Prior knowledge:
Largest sheet: 4 strands, antiparallel
Helix content: 25-40%
Structural class: alpha+beta
Strand content: over 45%
Number of helices: 2
Low-confidence stretches: none
Mean pLDDT: 93
CATH architecture: 2-Layer Sandwich
Shape: globular
CATH class: Alpha Beta
CATH topology: Alpha-Beta Plaits
Radius of gyration: 12 Å
Number of strands: 4
Order of helices and strands: EHEEHE
Strand order of the largest sheet: 2-3-1-4
Distance between the termini: 16 Å
Amino acid sequence: MTERMSACISLTGHVQSADFPVWIARHAHKLGLDHVTTQQVASGLEVTAEGAEEMLQALALGVSLGPESVLVETMRITTSACA
């Protein structure tokens, strides 16, 4: 059984597009991730999600590329085991 992980993905750049959170949620759902949230922060956008580590890494790669309406300059992912 794959261990469930929690991830926080921090994005900087032009990531304030109104359609980006919807885009992220749709891709996270396709990857089978749960508890997906997005939050605007001073430095950009933070995404949190839970699921298999491989799928969290896939989400991080996807959001770093983003839709045409955003330009991600930096992406950092921090993962930890779910309690």
